[in-house]
Amino acid sequence: MSFENPQNEESLMRERIGVIEKIPTGVQPKAEVVLVLLGERQASEMYIPNKNNAPKAAEDLIRIGLFAQIIEADEKSGSADIAVANSKETLEELLQTKPNKNHRRYGELMGYPSTAIDAYLGENNAERVSNEDQSRLTENLPDVLHHFILSKNNNDEELAVLNRWLKLIAQHSPELFDELYSKEDSDIFKKRLNL
Hints:
Blueprint (H helix, E strand, L loop, with lengths): L5 H16 L5 H11 L5 E6 L5 H10 L3 E8 L4 E7 L2 H9 L6 H7 L4 H8 L9 H7 L17 H18 L1 H7 L2 H10 L3
Antiparallel strand pairs: 1-3, 2-3
Helix pairs in contact: 1-2, 2-9, 5-6, 8-9
């Protein structure tokens, strides 16, 4: 990539995001992988409803500069999961990190704020917000992006992360952003983000 011509850089990023947008999966995994591509997250896992599409999806992700490996194919449902990362080392670490065994490291790889991870684990004197407060605080955000528990004392900063992620998706992938919301809600949220 050339840093001398910002238009070429922007065009190349748009092409790479276009590849992600065409992968046959839902909006959530696409949005999360866009965040990996943009450097907001180190890694993600992409659910592919039809496992027959997983090899091409993994190849496409590798072609655009990410690191990807099919990690699981479910014979019963016919689906597959792909581990996606911004580096070979991170991919290898993600493959070794089990979300139900190493919550902290898995959350870090997913880009979750450390305060939210602390609240989830009940560590460092962090407390979770109640389920009602979690719902109230995230009611204007699409469900697909708030996979971490908010903490009582740092939820403003944690919500800022979610809003930053949404703004990046709106700027770099308007189509995905519009899929996250109904058209009416999308326009309202774009105004709120000053887009």
